[in-house]
Predict the 3D structure of the following.
Amino acid sequence: MKRTCIKDIKPEEIVKVQGFVENCRNKRTMCFIVLRDITGKIQVTVDKENNPTLSEICDKITLESVVTVVGKAVSNEYVKLNGIEILPDEIKIESVAEAMPIKEDSTIDLRMDYRWIDLRTERNTLIFKVQTLMANTLRNFLIQRGFLEIHSPKLINTASESGSDVFEVKYFDDKAYLAQSPQFYKQMAMASGFERIFEVGPVFRAEKSNTSKHATEFTGFDLEMSYIESYKDLMQIEAEMLTEMLKAVSEKYGEDVKRLFGVDVVVPTLPFPVMKLCDVYAELESRYGYICPKGEEGDLTTEAEHLCENLAKDKFNHEFLFITDYDAKKRAFYHMRDEQGVPLGYDLIWKGVEITTGAQREHRYEILKKQAVEKGLDKDVQNYLKFFEYGCPPHGGFGLGLDRLTMRVLNIGIKEVMFLFRGPNRLTP
Amino acid sequence: MKRTCIKDIKPEEIVKVQGFVENCRNKRTMCFIVLRDITGKIQVTVDKENNPTLSEICDKITLESVVTVVGKAVSNEYVKLNGIEILPDEIKIESVAEAMPIKEDSTIDLRMDYRWIDLRTERNTLIFKVQTLMANTLRNFLIQRGFLEIHSPKLINTASESGSDVFEVKYFDDKAYLAQSPQFYKQMAMASGFERIFEVGPVFRAEKSNTSKHATEFTGFDLEMSYIESYKDLMQIEAEMLTEMLKAVSEKYGEDVKRLFGVDVVVPTLPFPVMKLCDVYAELESRYGYICPKGEEGDLTTEAEHLCENLAKDKFNHEFLFITDYDAKKRAFYHMRDEQGVPLGYDLIWKGVEITTGAQREHRYEILKKQAVEKGLDKDVQNYLKFFEYGCPPHGGFGLGLDRLTMRVLNIGIKEVMFLFRGPNRLTP
């Protein structure tokens, strides 16, 4: 017999339902079970007096056990859950649950220890329904626009980019490192003539920080495109894809997100507002009295980042804010610079948190090499520099963290948003 | 001015085209450039005598340099490439290429050293167009059927499954390992009540084998689903999703694959044929005289695997063959077994190569533990066993290798099919 999902149950049908026992009031003559599957909850009402076999089974059922129930769905106005209950002919215990080791109000770290139980709530399941939709909407948006998907290696022979905060791997008789980002390889794809690519995959950061936004492993969403005219092309496509993503989330899960997370999923208007960094600081001072500490004007301070939530809202009635014209000293060596030395890139701030760094890349071998030398990285990036010696299109790109993006959509912390969080002190389950 | 893709160029239009210089015949009075982008090739014809500025630029152009050309597209019946040429007003060299370090007939290992150049051919780019379509078709197929996407951690605290062939990572003051498969975590998602999930991500194998199908890192495509009635549900969904995938590839790239790889993309018929392992051996003997070596009848030998290509074709006129009823000794401890001890799972053979192992999983804690003890793994899988102590639905799943799947579609080897191959002696570029 085919299983019926709980949300599809109609009165007067004989159905087979399967799920976890969310509640079980086992009285002498009656047993009321609340069964939960991923689509909803339903009451199963057992008349124990007239069903000795079922009665015996009911006595063995523990909370969170998994059971299969076959029976008739009937309307009953006294039943709270949709006014329907199931009168079972058969109950089978598929898996008996031990006493629950966590409760809703357990500490986050204890909940992490038993993450597979912690994830069973409607709220926590919704995180992954939303994230699935987010990633798929972004991917389909790009694939419709001719982007190819790549899977670049995570095992690399030199510490990428900065060289610090990288995990070392024993690689047979040699050493390898875990990629901190697909940056160099997505640029390699440009030198391969792939023109437009994206990648969704894990990135690894050996940072010993215990904040609400850092993890040692998370899911990156990166793209790169050739023949852009400037980084403004990147800002445009990023704004469009995020808007499409939020539209999809709002339509499918907007009400659930509001009910379970108390957050409004706002579909942004296009184009997103853009400001130069110096103008941001000027307005933060005039509007909110914030003065950037001396010497830090070339980058956005953490406090300024937070204040940008207000600035974007007050000045543009928007949740997003693109910021441009950072100081070259604060940006990666591979960002292209204009004739005045200003990096041709941007950060995107959403609700007071930076979610992207994007830039046109320097594709001209000699200039790129010079910029690497300036930052003392020329030896580390020798292999990378080769990508630009045999012809490479002008290009640019940006990266998003899928987990960070989900954090912003739902307004929750990093430990909650990840299927399994990884931090300096957390490698289990 | 907006860029026009080469395939979209129409005569009498003023266009801006950008791409690599595939060929350059630079004569005294004329220069003929063949420009290539991801959509096609076009001839750029420069009248050097009447354009001294352009003439100077032409003299600097090397093969595989990247250029931007603005000019008028005109029909010319003497031009081989679609009968169109561009008469340029402007040419800009975006990136000068050094002399090419590889040729089409270079060894595969030299080509790997310069993979970004190797990937520039129409043939090699097609690999990733096809793979992009494959992965996206599979994902969308599953998402339409209510599957959630997860991103499970690749950093784990114990060597997964067999314990051998696993990479060790220095994790701050501790050790971690790289996940060999998301197996345990996709089952964890079942214990979380996610019901149907899939994951696309890297898997790592520290195997020191240099064959045409092994890599130390590749892209896994894994799924798991709850409340199946038997592994036959898995075979059905797998057959359906592969059929949908091949239909998409055939429609969009069938002709290109035939032209560039000489392979027919065959859309299979449903259902796929199924045989028991003992029947496979009986037919391999009667049809092709193959006799399985004594003691190896519980598993499919490599030679038998290859012969299954003929068997599937001769007996069923099909490219695929499901094989069931393997010996429990040859299967993972977490496969469910029937009352006779026969594992409730299958392998899928495509064109003589195993592409999947699928099975209903043992979700009953006590039996699962017993099976782990039998294989001497109970200590290694302690954390995993916990997933089954607090209620877990009956479930099953299977895994595919995205690279191996692409190998079969295009009939090429592992080094060719991967964006960047990783093997015991290969960590670069």
Notes: The mean pLDDT of chain B is 96. The first strand of chain B starts at residue 14 and ends at 26. The CA atoms of residues 42 and 82 of chain B lie 8 Å apart. Chain B touches chain A through 96 residues (CB under 8 Å).
